[in-house]
Design goal:
7-stranded mixed beta sheet; about 270 residues; alpha/beta
Length: about 270
Amino acid sequence: MWKSLLIKLIGFPALLIHGDPLVLDRWLWLKKKLPQTRNDETLLDCGCGSGAFTIGTARRGYVTTGISNAKDDLESAKERALLLAPYRTNFEVVDIRELEKQPVFTENFDVALCLEVIEHISDDRGLMVDLARCMKPGGRLLLTTPNYNYAAITSDEEGPWTEDNDHHGWHVRRGYTPMMLRELCDESGLVVEEITYCSGIVSQKLTKLLRALAKVHYMLGWSAILPFRILPPIFDRLLTNVIGWHYYSIGLEAYKPRFETSGSIGISTT
């Protein structure tokens, strides 16, 4: 109820601040990689959750499709999309572990998003291959996932991991290094354009405080950190680099080649 009220009061920014500060970090990272458009490029948000990034990218001009197997989340996403980005968003119940069963998605999207999802999937290679198949030749993949070297915000982030994808949505691996992401791109025929990072020490410490206080009541934690949410966009990168702290998320920008060259590894574009 309070989330709906917040959306009515301040609009789209409400979707970025009702969770932890890492959500806003990912949005700011995404905006840098995804220019506004008037050309109706198509975008697939794989594992879209409650639809914040699906809606946000629709507001930047993209025709977006968010997929997830969480029906309740998608119902909430549809309601929010009607308020914030009508006629430019579509949400479908799809198990991303079975993305190959969606032939209508084949080479249908200019952009694919996969934000904090792949660490939940046992067959990460299969997911990357499926994402590449969904992209048009010349399409782009924007992906974030935990940085293998992060400092755990809470003790449960140190494991143990599970190989069961159905285990309450928990991680199946700690995270990824740049080489692991490059390996996945090689396996799926994508070309790495850039690997960067987001969510530094300020965001991580605020998130830790939020989680600690949320054990009493979520609104207590949310209210406590609300005045400080302005700090990460201003100070996070500077302090993180000065201290030498590890960023929480690693980000990948990859490209699906328009032309197949001899000796290249990849999926056919013909």
